[in-house]
Structure formats: structure tokens, C-alpha cells
Amino acid sequence: MLIVQKFGGTSLADSDKIRKAALRTARLCRQGHQVVTVVSAQGHTTDRLIREAGEIDPQGSAREMDAYLAAGEQMSAGLMAMALQKAGCDAISLTGWQAGILTDGDHGNARVAVLQSDRIQRELAQGKAVVVAGFQGVDAEGDITTLGRGGSDTTAVALAAFLGAEECRIYTDVDGVYDRDPREYPDAVRYDRIGYDAMLDLARRGAQVLHDRCVELGRQYGVKIRVLSSFRPGPGTLVSD
Ligand code: ASP
Ligand code: MG
Fold first, then answer.
1. Which of 26, 28, 177, 214 could form a disulfide with 89 if both were Cys (CB 3.0 to 4.6 A apart)?
2. Which of 5, 6, 12, 46 is the pocket-test mutation for ligand 1 (most atoms within 8 Å of CB)?
3. How far apart are CA 144 and CA 63, in angstroms?
4. What b/e sequence results for 56-80 when a residue is b if at least 16 CB atoms lie within 10 Å of its CB, and e otherwise?
5. Which CATH number characterizes residue 85's domain?
């Protein structure tokens, strides 16, 4: 089975967490699955990079901000591929542009258009576990773009759609989608299943758990999205029709 999964920043916050994510992934590979892993920047890296760029110019050029911010995910991808290799799994990391993720030219908030290369499929066919840097792509000019805050979710669902994976697993720090923020409301209720429209409504009203565009893409291509905790076992929440 082809599995596309994504680990968010909190799931990769330090070496130990990266190692755990890699072990979980290596297990899937040993079971004979083809696995594409999308990674976010570690912890609060993106916030830090934005702050540091602001010290140079708070109104910095959107093109250069993308060139700079994309580095966070690129670093995670390299680390994750090394952790997978260390776990005995043949792995390769790819940036968004190496993977062929073509977007429009709206720097800082680009939309994924298409997967324009078969690089991922070729690596999978050679038995490699593929790690893709989330949140980034390349526009028609060949410039690096980013997909907006939280955009690694969208990278994962876009890859699941274009590669024909049936399900996309999103590993995060909460164990699913709740009707309200479970950190604020202890009586919040977790959904076992939620429809795309209801999920989109939650995402647009500010629920941070999924990027709204990933839900739009999931609905458009019929990709089932499963939100799971990296830290606690459980069924999570399935976002589907
Ligand atoms: N690193 C980016 C952000 O913090 C993208 C992501 O994590 O999905 O917004
Ligand atoms: Mg997120």
C-alpha cells in the first residue's frame, strides 16, 4: 500500500522525536508499504526565522522570505532521511522543487497546482522511503514558494492526491479533531469522523489542527485524511465524505 504521512513541528521538535517518527516509518517500510513522509520545520523554527528576518527588514521581499523560510522544512527533511537510514531503511529526502511540486507565484500563500515530475515515483520504485520537505514548491519561473502557515498539511494531501494514495495520515500533537479547542475546553468532544465541509468550516474558523487548503484538496480529490497523535496511540479522526 502507498502511504503518505506528515509529521508536524511538535512531532519533530528534537532528535529524540525525530528518531521516534523515523522508527514508526521504518516499521511501515519493513511491512512492505511504500511510504512518503512529509515533514514540517522543527518546533517553532518558522516563527524564529520570521522574527530573525524581521530584524533585517520587517517588510522583506516576499520572494526572499520564501527562499529563507523554506530552509526550515529542508533541514527537517535531511534529518528525517538520516534518521531513517540509521533505522536501517533506505531513504532519500527531497525539497518541494526536487519533488516537482508546482505552485502559482503567490509568494507566502502559494497554491499547489500539480506534481510536475515523477521523481517521487522513481525513488519509491527503487525501494526508497521518500521524505519530502513540506510547505514549499516552485512556481513557473522556477522560484521557491511557500504555501502559507500550516501549509505542510497541504503538501501531504496534495501528494496523496497526485500519487493516488487512499489515505493521508497527519501526525500532530492532538489526538484528533475536536468540536472546540481541547486545551481550552476540557469537555471538548473528539470526532471519530467528520465530513470535509464541516472540517473546512472548523479550519476556516481558526481550528489550527488542519490547514484549510488541505481539506479543500482532500474534498476535491477524495483523499481521506486521518488526524493522529504522534505521542498517544488511538484511532484519531477521519476526515472524509
Ligand atoms: N513550518 C510552517 C509553519 O510553521 C509550515 C507547517 O508547519 O506546516 O507554518
Ligand atoms: Mg498545523
1. 26
2. 46
3. 7
4. eeeeeeebebbbbbbbbbbbbbebb
5. 3.40.1160.10
pTM above threshold 0.85:
yes
**What ranges make up the beta strands (E) of 50-110?**
91-94, 101-103
C-alpha cell at 146: 511557500
Count other C-beta atoms under 10 Å from residue 148's C-beta. 16
CA atoms within 13 A on the CB side of 98: 15
User: What is the structure's pLDDT at 181?
Assistant: 86
Q: Whose CA is nearest to atom 9 of ligand 1?
A: 149
Q: d(Cα 8, Cα 214) in Å, to the nearest integer? A: 14
Calculate how far, in angstroms, residue 148's C-alpha sits from the geometric centre of ligand 2.
Answer: 11
Domain membership of residue 24 as a residue range:
2-240
Cell of 121: 515515483
159-212 pLDDT, tens digit each = 999 999 989 999 999 999 999 888 889 999 999 999 999 999 999 888 889 999
Domain tally, the chain = 1
Nearest CA to ligand 1 atom 4: 46
- Distance between CA atoms of residues 79 and 9, nearest Å: 13
* Contact (Cβ atoms closer than 8 angstroms) between residue 155 and residue 138: no
Integer Cα distance of 78 and 71 in angstroms: 11
